[in-house]
Amino acid sequence: MSPLLQTRASASAQGFGAFLAAGAATSFESIATVTVGSGGAANVEFTSIPSTYTHLQIRGLIRCTRSDTAVDVNLQVNSDTGSNYADHVLYGSGSAAGAFGGGSADRIRFLWAPAANNTASFFGGAVADMLDYANTNKYKTFRSLSGGDGNATLENQVSLRSGLWQSTSAITSIKLFFSVGNFAQYSHIALYGIKSA
Contact 11/26 with Cβ under 8 angstroms? Predict the structure, then answer.
């Protein structure tokens, strides 16, 4: 199993994760894991998320069934489809770099994923944090690092993203989906809770 996805339920970690401070004492606990089966899946959802953690983290190996180009994995929380999201994206492909963003959107462009026209069995990797997800006194912020190199012109990318959900409600559910295409078979997404010491 990939070290990125190795389950370490209740394991103690020092500075582990994409964006946690080095030396910060934390405990990662597995909440749920989804491995997409034959035929793919239109979306991946985590529901009934407990409020007992400080932050949440998603780790994934992802591929889309869309056949023409790489795509964004979108995020919505708590079934909110209103214009309550904003995001920023920085990306590089090895030969070019760029940035874009948006506000008053109905989703966050959360992760990058390769499409089905890429090298067979190539999946993009992703690590993403949802900070202070249960705090009812602030809007919710997200950040992610995703990408991969499939040796195909359209599919080499690393992407650093941030997002905002303009709500003080605690996050109790997370939905991941593509605007076009489905999660390909064997896509693997795990949700972890992070407890601060």
Answer: no
Q: Which token pair is 61?
A: 């190996």
Domain boundaries, the chain: 11-196
Locate 38 and state its tokens: 């034959």
- Output the pTM of the full model: 0.86
Distance between CA atoms of residues 182 and 166, nearest Å: 27
Mean predicted confidence (pLDDT) in 126-144: 98
Q: Which of 57, 75, 88, 58 is nearest to 159 (CA)?
A: 88
Instruction: Output the average pLDDT for the chain.
Output: 87
Burial class (CB in 10 A: 0-12, 13-18, 19+), 87: buried
Arithmetic mean of pLDDT, 141-167: 88
Asked if CATH classification 2.40.440 holds for the domain at 11-196, the reply, yes or no, is: no
Contact in structure between 26 and 16 (CB atoms under 8 Å): yes
Per-residue pLDDT, 68: 80
